[in-house]
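Q: My labmate handed me this sequence with no annotations at all. I'd like to see what the chain might look like in three dimensions before we decide whether it's worth expressing. Could you predict it?
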Amino acid sequence: MKIRNLDLTRNPVNEEHQLLGLPPVEDTVSHLEAHPFLRVAVWFAVIVLISLIGFLIIRFFLAQDWGVSWKIINETLDSRLFWSAVAVGFLAQVVDGALGMAYGVTATTFLLASGASPAAASASVHIAEIFTTGVSGIAHAKFGNVNKQLFTRLLLPGMLGGILGAVLVTQVNSALFKPFISAYLLLLGAYILSKAFRQLNIRRDAPRHVGKLACFGGFMDAAGGGGWGPIVTTTLVGTGNDPRTTIGSVNFAEFFLTLASAAVFALLMETDTWPLIIGLVFGGLFAAPFAAYLCKKFHARMLLMLVGVLIITISFYNLYKALITL
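A: Here is what I predict for the chain of 326 residues:
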């Protein structure tokens, strides 16, 4: 899960992260600040997560006899698609836990390579992310990592962009849309890779055009299956915003963006993607401790290079396959 308690002390790792425009390393944050609006948002997230878990239990177990339930479980465990999603969820969570971003980009890139349509891949990633971003956002608010002003400026534009992106990707023919998604992911992979070879010039002016940035990031996140973190977080940190409150605010806003996008996918899509969703969540749960271990063993620059090359390679392959099938 994307729970990050950030250490803001000056140390070699944090200095390297600052040069690359990445979040600081994780450590315990002791203080807690709350606002009535944030309390309402936190309780809303808690209620949504509990309701979704209850719905899934009723939908797959209590609403039918145990024989049918066990049949569904066995069919899911025997599904190649499910285990592919487990592997993708594991890898994507490792990447996200190590870099503080790129879960959606990594997961969508691999799901497209496994044969999923752009709409199915993006829907599966966003529904699975409801749980990870929900837990992450609640934790950030509890630890005082959310800036209310920045959070409110990100919230509605990000949700609007996510809704528009989800509508677009579900209404456009997947065969026609897949080359554009693959090209976008390829460029995003190149951007992540470029961060390993350049020093970030941090400005100290106040953030501008936050609403436009959030709307664009939300749109690309829903339409392309990822990009909220790389677009919004990197831009805000790069303009000199406090990394701790920026990461916390962006991650908490991501829960509401993800919820809005997932609702649109659920309403407009008829494809059953539950094996993908469950696989992504299942793989992500086991990846959290491994991601923390990986952070200690690899430098941030090396991780950026590995992830960038991996996403570029797979996206180029997806783009090639999509173009030759048109």
